[in-house]
Design goal:
106 residues, mainly alpha, two-stranded antiparallel ribbon, 2 strands
């Protein structure tokens, strides 16, 4: 029974690894270089890319920096995670005895 179950698991794992990856629908760009859904008004054909000068201008126009509100919220989230870690009980590596543990045989 154990060998049959192991073989079944191995066949399942091989079938999963051999399956092709799912492909997503292509995304389109508008004339400014922003990503939009294909088929919407102003969307360029699939595979169209803006020229190098236009792409450079679009990259310079987009704001990629963090403002003060985002920095404060990031610090609060990270601080909250550390606070949850601090609330965890101490663990010295030894397990306490549970009621369903086997009694030591002597």
């Amino acid at each position: 029974m154990g060998a049959r179950l192991t073989l079944r698991g191995l066949v399942f794992a091989l079938a999963i690894m051999a399956a092709p990856a799912a492909l997503a629908a292509p995304s389109c760009l508008d004339r400014q270089g922003d990503t939009v859904r294909c088929g919407t008004r102003g969307a360029m054909p699939v595979g169209w890319t803006p020229g190098p000068d236009q792409a450079r201008a679009h990259l310079a126009a987009t704001d990629s920096g963090l403002d003060a509100r985002q920095i404060v919220s990031l610090v609060c989230v990270i601080g909250g995670i550390f606070a949850l870690f601090a609330l965890l009980p101490d663990f010295d590596g030894a397990w306490d005895r549970q009621e369903d543990d086997c009694e030591p045989r002597g």
